[in-house]
Amino acid sequence: xxALTPSPLRVAIIGAGQVADxxxxxxxxxxxxxxxxxxxxxxxxxxxxxxxxxxxxKAYQDLQTLLREAKPDIVSVCSPNRFHYEHVMAALEAGCHxxxxxxxxxxxxxxxEMRLAARKxxxxxxxxxxxxxxxxxxxxRDAVQSGTFGEIYVTNALALRRCGVPxxxxxxxxxxxxxxxLIDIGIHMLDAAMxxxxxxxxxxxxxxxxxxxxxxxxxxQFGEWDPKTYTVEDALFGTIEFCNGGILxxxxxxxxxxxxxxxxxxxFCGEKAGATLFPAHIYNDVGGELHTLLKRDEADDQRHxxxxxxxxxxxxxxxxxxxxxxxxxxxxxxVAALYESSEKRERVALC
Length: 351
Ligand SMILES: NC(=O)c1ccc[n+]([C@@H]2O[C@H](COP(=O)([O-])OP(=O)(O)OC[C@H]3O[C@@H](n4cnc5c(N)ncnc54)[C@H](O)[C@@H]3O)[C@@H](O)[C@H]2O)c1
What we know:
Low-confidence stretches: none
Domain Gfo/Idh/MocA-like oxidoreductase N-terminal: 9-128
Radius of gyration: 21 Å
Domain Gfo/Idh/MocA-like oxidoreductase C-terminal: 141-350
Protein name: Oxidoreductase domain protein
Shape: globular
Bound molecules: nicotinamide-adenine-dinucleotide
Number of helices: 10
Pfam families: GFO_IDH_MocA (PF01408), GFO_IDH_MocA_C (PF02894)
GO molecular function: nucleotide binding
């Protein structure tokens, strides 16, 4: 390498599971200005197999040893939700930039401490809310900003599966995961909706949750699970009321008797026009007929790569949008309020 070429940024990955494999490592491998130097897993055999697959130099089981020996510039946190807080805090303390998988943490207190730690360290902390990086999402965000919709007063976010309880990992374990479909898949459409709306200030939250199918069925489109250890909700239905008078309704489920196998989408209804997010379609009514103002034929399937790319470019100093620690905290607060409302069966005020 010539003296003028900067050294590649050193990358470490924590949690050698499927998202680390398919998204983080696969993306980092496409860049010659990054070098994957270490991987850590609580199961050393996972870390070693991952290191072999991706040509990563070293596999670790102890985080402080990794941080001391491998000296990464960037850390991807891909461990189960329960461990995001401790892994992000340790990486920031060691002076690393961090890309953390969603959800940010288990509760708003942790997400807030992570936000403050990133600020104190002067490092980038981004969350992998990748649906906001689809070109569809950006088109709708631009349309909101240019006034195409007038005021949007009703938003419907759907993250529903007919029978799609994850059959791997710890997704049915409340203690390790923090919750079920809301914190796993609903959170994605919640973030995409909030991003398009420009993160309006929230007044209150109400929600109902159900646990009817996960504890009785045991297999579906994503494999098998043990109904005896299923401790998360199957479905949650919530309404977020904004200070501007608008509402965002969120429906999310791992298992619900609906016609479609899976629905991941958001629709927006404004005074002048409405829109569907995936694929982006903006419309209104002219003389009783649907009038299209903008339409993509297919939704952007590169959104996950764009999320990783934005993080790295941000680390390198480009002023590109990321799902940052401030917005991650707002999303974590909304998730907590939705769970609190569904448990107490009462409205939760947020301002
Ligand atoms: N952005 C997305 O669309 C997306 C998709 C999938 C998963 N995720 C998130 O990524 C995270 C991991 O999910 P996954 O599907 O890859 O799970 P996974 O079960 O495939 O992988 C998790 C890995 O972490 C390891 N692990 C467990 N405890 C650990 C600890 N204390 N320290 C280090 N490693 C530990 C496990 O051994 C396993 O190898 C979760 O937070 C999940 O919400 C995000």
